């Protein structure tokens, strides 16, 4: 046993809406085909919420599962970190709404806006608060209702996105396991390649600008693709170096699920064979900050991640933001 305080993931949970939207359903909405979507992205279907379901609702379900597994009561939670770009409201934070729904009245609360990297940013923040001994138990969420910011007339984007939430309880431990290293980065000069142009303080919503559909996600897909491949490869290499391990020692790589071709290119670059890479993009599409915690929960519950497993997480998203984490279970 070492005297160092580590931050361990002691419970996970996930929640995806019941409603399934298949590529064949999308063929009826925009000029696309199952063949194009499958070949170009690897996505077969995605989950979409019913009207009225908010990010805090999906987060609540995922959080309860994670808390139950970790045997954590609402009062024990010191901090709630919610990674999302689709909050319930602009004000207050979704973390505040979730705190109330959980009854986690002793928790500090904040949202983290890092798009698809939101969960990695959350894990890194949790690790820092735990290792500095300011917190003992932190609830980290990645949640998106991307369907609420998707332009359902734009085939370039609407075929890619889905809704979902994933949660993790992160707790202090003296054991030699947990979040071994994290790496965070970004490049704000490329903000315009993936953004929601209006609805913030720069261009508040008006009846006229809403008609131009600029309150939905706009993306330059092929530019984002190139940056994603480069940055996810870099971030994976960086985290292995920080953790002092080689790619052979990684039991599982969980990349952000944006496009199967980005995942395969990242795996090739870091020399991790695809049988050690977790993929569920075919079921959920790109759920932004939720994709990694949903995958993490599925990998743990299906037994792919066992006690002792060395797992690398890597994400890239709007901002641009990117980052990685190395976790020993
Ligand atoms: N169905 C049919 N054709 C389509 C569709 C569609 N749904 N969408 C685009 N096309 C067409 C385009 O119009 C284009 O036609 P053209 O050549 O006549 O102009 C053609 O298909 C090829 O388009 P490309 O953009 O070159 O296709 P590409 O191979 O780049 O794949 C994709 C597009 C899937 C969007 C890819 O670029 C991608 O995955 N990009 C990265 C997205 C991503 O990783 N985002 C991460 C962050 S997301 C976040 O932060 C919320």
Task: Give a brief outline of the structure.
This protein has 329 residues and is an alpha/beta fold.
Question: What is the H/E order?
Answer: EEHHEHEHEHEHEEEHEHEHHHEE
CATH topology of the largest domain: Peroxisomal Thiolase, Chain A, domain 1
User: What count of domains describes the coordinates?
Assistant: 2
| Structural category | alpha/beta
CATH class of the largest domain: Alpha Beta
Instruction: Give the oligomer, counting copies of the same chain as homo and different chains as hetero.
Output: single chain
Number of strands: 13
- DSSP helix count? 11
Rg from Cα: 19 Å
Strand order of the largest sheet: 1-7-6-4-5
Shape: globular
Give the overall average pLDDT.
Answer: 97
SSE map:
Blueprint (H helix, E strand, L loop, with lengths): L5 E10 L4 E3 H5 L6 H8 L3 E3 L7 H16 L8 E5 L10 H9 L5 E5 L5 H14 L5 E9 L9 H4 L4 E11 L4 E9 L7 E2 L11 H5 L6 E2 L1 H23 L8 E4 L4 H10 L11 H4 L6 H11 L8 E8 L3 E8 L1
Parallel strand pairs: 4-5, 4-6, 11-12
Antiparallel strand pairs: 1-7, 2-3, 6-7, 8-13, 9-10, 12-13
The structure holds acetyl coenzyme *A.
The site of acetyl coenzyme *A has 23 residues, from helix 2, helix 6 and helix 8.
């Amino acid at each position: 046993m070492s005297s160092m305080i580590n931050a361990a993931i002691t419970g996970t949970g996930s929640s995806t809406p019941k409603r399934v939207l298949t590529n064949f359903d999308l063929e009826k909405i925009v000029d696309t085909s199952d063949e194009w979507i499958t070949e170009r992205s690897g996505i077969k279907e995605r989950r979409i919420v019913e009207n009225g379901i908010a990010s805090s609702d999906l987060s609540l379900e995922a959080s309860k599962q994670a808390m139950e597994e970790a045997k954590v009561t609402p009062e024990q939670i010191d901090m709630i970190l919610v990674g999302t770009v689709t909050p319930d409201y602009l004000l207050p934070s979704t973390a505040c709404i979730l705190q109330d729904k959980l009854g986690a009245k002793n928790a500090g609360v904040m949202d983290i806006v890092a798009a698809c990297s939101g969960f990695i940013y959350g894990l890194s923040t949790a690790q820092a608060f735990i290792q500095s001994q300011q917190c003992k138990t932190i609830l980290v969420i990645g949640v998106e209702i991307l369907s609420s910011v998707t332009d359902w007339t734009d085939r370039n984007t609407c075929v890619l996105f889905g809704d979902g939430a994933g949660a993790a309880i992160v707790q202090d431990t003296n054991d030699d396991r947990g979040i071994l290293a994290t790496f965070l980065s970004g490049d704000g000069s490329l903000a315009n390649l993936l953004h929601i142009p209006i609805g913030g303080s720069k261009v508040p919503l008006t009846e006229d600008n809403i008609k131009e559909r600029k309150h939905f996600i706009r993306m330059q897909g092929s530019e984002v693709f190139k940056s994603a491949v480069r940055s996810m490869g870099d971030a994976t290499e960086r985290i292995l170096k920080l953790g002092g391990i080689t790619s052979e020692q990684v039991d599982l790589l969980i990349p952000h699920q944006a496009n199967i071709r980005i995942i395969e290119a990242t795996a090739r670059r870091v020399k991790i064979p695809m049988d050690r890479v977790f993929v569920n993009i075919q079921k959920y599409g790109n759920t932004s900050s939720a994709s990694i915690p949903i995958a993490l929960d599925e990998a743990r519950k299906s037994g792919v991640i066992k006690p002792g497993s060395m797992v690398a997480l890597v994400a890239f998203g709007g901002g641009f933001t990117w980052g990685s984490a190395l976790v020993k279970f």
